[in-house]
Amino acid sequence: MEMSNAGLGAVFLLGLSFGAGPCNIVCLPYLGPVFLAGHDNARVAWRTVLPFSLGRLFGYALLGAGSGGFGFLIQNWLDSKWAGLVLGYATIIVALAFLFRYRRTSPKISGKLCTTSENTQRLTFQKKPARSLQPGLFFMGVGMAFNPCTPLTMVIAAAAMTASPVMGFMLGLAFGMGAVIIPAIIFAVVIVHISAEIRQGLAQWRRPLEMGAISMLLFMGTATALGWISP
How do the pLDDT tens digits run along the chain, 231 residues long? Predict the structure, then answer.
């Protein structure tokens, strides 16, 4: 048991070092536009970060359990196009949810401008993340976890050597917990602040900025699903 605890600790630190570096760069093109389009602030940023992080945790744990039970078959699956499809289609779903909300919160009703009170009500609605976004964000996290990287390959190999789905699950979960902590903090504090500053500085271009963020999500999702971009 002591060896197992030491192994889990080492895997956690491996995930922590991975999450402190390249993970943030990989996540930014996918999660960054969500904050630009979503009007999140520091108090509600967790509504975006939490489902995405839980999806990554679920994905890493699932890979660990599968590798412990089936060996390197999981690695072969990772190298296929299916991993990109999960992330790509989930990103498209999030983009379409934002597009639907963008149309619902248009400042025009029947060709006439809304009153000030109506605009205020609509802006208040926009500050609350649509519930339809959360499943998409979760599967974006799953898709991000399914994309192979050197640290994850090491964890999968270690899980396969245990020949135990339970131990593989624990290794994947330990790696995931380390991998998501720092990105979650950075996105919930730093990225959301930068996004708010951009929206404030470009307040007169709020609607085009939202549409640009949605277009970016659609492009990233389509390009990833088609294999043009490999995160």
Answer: 444 666 788 999 999 988 888 777 888 888 888 888 776 666 778 888 999 999 999 999 999 998 888 866 666 666 657 778 888 999 999 999 888 877 766 554 334 444 444 444 444 444 444 456 788 899 999 999 887 778 888 898 888 888 888 999 999 999 999 999 999 999 888 888 888 788 778 777 878 888 888 899 999 999 988 888 876
Q: Which two tokens stand for residue 99?
A: 């597009």
> 3-class DSSP state for residue 108?
strand
CA distance 48 to 169: 25
Domain ranges for the chain: 2-225
- Alpha-carbon distance of 61 to 142, in angstroms, equals 10
Cα–Cα distance, 11 to 55 (Å, whole number): 19
* Measured distance CA(102)–CA(16) in Å, rounded: 36
CA distance 26 to 151: 14
Which tokens in the block code for residue 136?
């998409």
80: three-class secondary structure by DSSP: coil
How far is residue 210's CA from residue 189's CA, in Å, rounded to a whole number? Answer: 20
Please tell me the distance from the alpha carbon of residue 94 to that of residue 219, in angstroms, as a whole number.
12
CA distance 53 to 142: 9
pTM (two decimals): 0.80
Handedness of CA 92, 97, 100, 106 (dihedral sign): negative
Q: List the one residue out of 169, 187, 186, 153 whose CA is nearest residue 72.
A: 153
